[in-house]
Amino acid sequence: MSLDLNFMVGGEAGQGIQTVGFILGKTMVRGGLHVFADQDYESRIRGGHNFFRARVSEGQVGAQKEQLDILIAMNEETVELHRNEVKENGLIIGDKSVLKLKSGDSRFLELPMESLAMQTTGNKIVSNSVAVGATFGLLDYDFQILDNVLRWHFSKSSPKIQEDNVNAARAGFEYAKMHRPSGFNLKCSPVGIGRRMFLTGHEAVSLGAIAAGCQFLAAYPMTPTTPVLELLAEKGRSYDIAVIQAEDEISAINMVVGAAFAGVRAMTATSGSGFALMVEGIGLAGITETPAVIVLGQRPGPAVGLPTRTEQGELLMAIRVGTGEFPRAVLAPATVEDAFFMTVKAFNLAEQYQIPVIILTDTHLANSYNDVDKFDLRKVKIDRGELLSTEEVGRITDYRRHLVTRSGVSPRAIPGMSTTLVITDSDEHDEYGHLTESAVIRTEQVKKRLKKYDGLKSEIENPRYQTRPDAELTLIGWGSTFGAIREAALELEKAGVACNVLHLNQVWPFPVAEVVGALNHKGKKVVIESNATGQLAYLIQAETGQKIDYQINKWDGRPISPQYILNALKKGVI
Amino acid sequence: MAGIESRTDITFQNFASSVEIAWCPGCGNFGILRAIKRALVELQIAPHQVFFVSGIGQAGKTPHYLKCNLLNELHGRTLPAATAARIVNPGLTVIAEGGDGDGYGEGGNHFISVMVRNVKITYLVHNNQVYGLTKGQASPTSQKGFITKTTPQGAWEPLNPLALAIATNASFVARSYSADTEHLTKMIKMAIQHRGFALVDILQPCVTYNHVNTYQFYQSRVYKLDEDRNYDPTDRIGAFRKSLEWGDKIPIGLFYKVERPVFEDYVPVYPGEPLVKRPISAERIQQLLEEYI
């Protein structure tokens, strides 16, 4: 049987759970293995219960598993909450304190984390590295890779900190090898030298923005998009990006419009409630035909909802955002790789069509790590659309920012780059950008803006699906659920069910023809979403007239797993 | 702006617009429009070098009636867009313009934040103490007891924008009067030349909806601070005290001025070539991608 190793690190906020998990995952990826890791935390800085869960495999994985092989428990509560997820031949690792709960359970390994750390380094702070080392000792993994990863991770710390972490890890590694419980047989070896990137969805969005030539980011901190603001604030200094923490989301979106109108690529990032504050500003981008990129990282609403958890509750809000009617595109990346390339695409579409483009993610994609091939920058094409150079502007004697054209897109000049004046208005305006009350001009300008949909529709790539006329079942989804849906489909296929997947990562303009084509069979159509009402199911029925037979919904704020889908199908469909 | 030479002198003719003016006859806005043009001509700033961001209300229409680059923004949102434009293209003279409802009401949070930041923006507020465009409701600066359809019992306490500005340590705080073109021109010029955020609150009679704060009202009350040799606009406490003066005598002029670092200089990528002129490419992030391997 091929490797499918699942581990979890759990504990309180402030105990370094994320770092332990990340180093475990990274060390696996450096050994040529594939890792998918998700995180679960509460809206607090200290205390509570957090976990980092990783799945290690020889093939690419895109979803978590519910059963665990190894549980690294930093506190008692972790054992209480998760011991039932640990397989019979699995293992719970923890210091003495967590073993109070052992009571005849053979799945425990007592790991004297603190005392091993103190003995080897005299430094209690590195006890987490003892746990990391012990995990790899149990698995009989190559310690050298962990050694390298620890030195790399702590490269900005002092040499002593690096050394202490490595020594603590080694102590844990040796200890676990010697004290390996007899019932625990799992092993895991590197399969080569891993040269893949290991990063989260929102790290990929941030890198995509830098690659696309974003030069301005304004945002107000809001989970789960704060890491985008933080990462660009740090990296932007080296890549010509002005990053501003705005006083509120209304300011952020208006700054983006100001920066983009003044000529640079600009972006903001927020979550549902912040997005709600941006609604009017997105309309401003619509009527002034100013390119704007907005990352909407969904979390459960309404209002503040469950701040640190995941949901797909804003699909319809995103595609319908704004007062009045104007074109927009909504991209919903399904994977870390999508997150990078679709961010690049968002910047291109925004400038080619001079519209707001929304990158619709969620907490699950935002915070989940996956390994990917290094992004191929040859595939990144920067297309600024009909942006006029100073020479081109010079040849125009009667410049009109909102000139009516066949495509609906007007040549765009930048203020101050020539003697040509660039004028626009949040009021309805004439071709020059001056406000108007004319019924004729109003009719013409609305039509002109909506005309952009003709071109925009052709830019939307096909959803992921196979042509399977024999499909008994089509599992349908969008955004971050792709990994779970794909895996559930593979499991069904193994069980003899002819199963198709239709997964959308570009949701607006809606790919009507492709969805109709993919659903053109007699099999059952099941839409799977992390929300309560089935927003994609609604959209498919509204846009295509295709009937949806069954919906699987989950709105508890936790991500959908392949097992969840299979269980739900067994109850109602198959 | 750098790189584009102005060979001929800038005159009023350069700012003549053919757009039909939609203000009431006698509106205080006419005086403001005249003073803006005069300030730009006297400073020899060409239309293409100016970037106006205006709000919604009668004041927000002003830049349409001259020649300039213009983003006529949403209600209350001039200052965020002006901030961004200034950062990506410091070659532009950035002027934000709107009314009291737009800037002190709808845009209040931005007003406070931009003053704290001290971005180099000139902010002209047409303060007529009433909503004109929506036909005469109370505004944040309406005088106490001012009766309108939305405040039949009379308006409640007014906001004092100058006191607020001085409290945030805004680096240039001035007030002028729309009927005194000479004085207003001088204030606008000083504001444009100031390195930092510059507020010019402009007392502006609304001939249609404000029958309290009329030309007659102001004519007998306003007096110029710069004629008082003892007034020191660098004294913040004194300026605050002066900003509270409103009654039989209403001071106009430069209330407060302080030299302090501008926000632009704090933005790490700001120095050097304007962002808008820098080339963009994906290739240069190769090294950054390596950090994730």
What does this structure look like?
The complex is a heterodimer of chains A (574) and B (293). With 574 residues, chain A is α/β, with parallel strands linked by helices. Chain A folds into four domains: 4-194, Pyruvate-ferredoxin oxidoreductase, PFOR, domain III (Pyruvate-ferredoxin Oxidoreductase, domain 3); 199-376, 3-Layer(aba) Sandwich (Rossmann fold), CATH 3.40.50; 390-459, no CATH class; 464-572, Rossmann fold, CATH 3.40.50. In chain A, 39% of the residues lie in helices and 20% in strands. Chain A has helices spanning 17-30, 76-82, 113-121, 127-139, 143-153, 159-178, 201-211, 226-235, 249-261, 272-288, 315-320, 336-353, 363-367, 390-394, 439-459, 482-494, 512-518, 535-544, 562-572; strands spanning 4-13, 34-40, 47-57, 68-73, 86-94, 108-110, 197-200, 214-219, 242-245, 265-270, 292-298, 329-331, 356-362, 369-372, 423-425, 464-465, 473-478, 499-504, 506-508, 524-529, 550-553. In chain A, the strands form three sheets. In chain A, strands 6-5-4-1-3-2-14-7 form an eight-stranded mixed β-sheet, sandwiched between helices. In chain A, helix 5 (143-153) runs antiparallel to helix 6 (159-178). The longest helix of chain A has 21 residues, at 439-459. The two termini of chain A are 27 Å apart. The mean pLDDT of chain A is 95. Chain B is of the alpha/beta class. Chain B has a single domain (12-290), classed as Thiamin diphosphate (ThDP)-binding fold, Pyr/PP domains (Rossmann fold, 3-Layer(aba) Sandwich), CATH 3.40.50. In chain B, strands 2-1-3-4-6-5-8-7 form an eight-stranded mixed β-sheet, sandwiched between helices. In chain B, helix 6 links the parallel strand 5 (172-177) and strand 6 (198-203). The longest helix of chain B has 14 residues, at 29-42. Chain B starts with 28 loop residues before the first helix and ends with a helix. In chain B, 51% of the residues are buried. Classes of the chains: A alpha/beta (574), B alpha/beta (293). Chains A and B meet through strand 7, helix 7, strand 8, strand 9 and helix 9 of A and strand 2, helix 2, helix 4 and helix 10 of B.
